[in-house]
Amino acid sequence: MTSEQGGNTPIVAGVDSSEAALHAVRWAAATAILHRAPLHLVYAAGFPDLYVGETIQPPESFREELRKQGWEFLRTAEAAAREAGKVDIHSRFETDPPIQVLLGVSASARMLVLGSSGRTGLTGLIVGSTTLAMVSHARCPVVSVRGDYPDVPARDRRPVVVGIDGSPLSERAIGYAFDEAAFRGVDLVAVHTWSDADNEVFSQARMYYDWEPMRDVEERRLAERLAGWQQDYPDVKVTRVLVQDKPRRELLEWSGKAQLVVVGSRGRGGFRGMLLGSTSQALVHRAECPVLIVRPDKNTTTGAARGTDERV
């Protein structure tokens, strides 16, 4: 992986009873094979301690039925994962609530993969609040796989697309995007958008370059941000896309031509303290391909060079 993860760090997939979760498991299994990483399947039952409005615990028979259902879901997920090929699978059943469990496992995961539905919003275990909690607080990248997205063929040649806006998190997203493109053996499309209303660019970059045309400023900035990574990944062919537009519309359009879109959880234009930006939210709900959302690494204190955002 990038400098943050390596070795035998697992890819984790959240499991529930939905078809969307099985799509996510298949995608996670295929990605684990590419990375030669183990796949951890996690089902969190969220056992209630008490009946609602009551002061007594549920009977053991009720708990046992939940355990039985949970392991059935895990066995189904294991079978789906094996459809991708030979993969090292570890299944985990937990009685704690999903958000609590998934946040915990994210601390030691290469990435956390969740399923979502393309028609009716987020379903099953992976409800809206769970997904938003993960992309806002997880300690590893989070991948949202749309439930109606077809299983990715083994030889998918579509590119990986990364959204770049100059923020620290987009710098980290570049690294993950190069990494995924390299493992998949596909091209990388680097999409950079700007707007004349972007005060940060106008006040800093344009003045720095002595008022040269805005497109020239942005083209120079994009080349500088990609240069170091292209040296690290010389076999990855990069296409630069420079557009005067808001990133959400451009990246949503590219999601229909990509096998994966990579973005930071919050971009340059977000308010301080905002955990999830409008672009990443739009992609989670509307993208036509899986989306990898990069979170800040709060354990790293030297993140400027590789995009750690110490402000979040």
From TrEMBL:
It comes from the Bacteria. Keywords: ATP-binding, Nucleotide-binding. The keyword ATP-binding applies. InterPro entries: Rossmann-like_a/b/a_fold, Universal_stress_UspA, UspA. GO terms for molecular function: ATP binding. SUPFAM superfamilies: Adenine nucleotide alpha hydrolases-like. Coiled coil: none annotated. Signal peptide: none annotated. Belongs to the universal stress protein A family. This is Nucleotide-binding universal stress protein, UspA family. It comes from Prauserella marina.
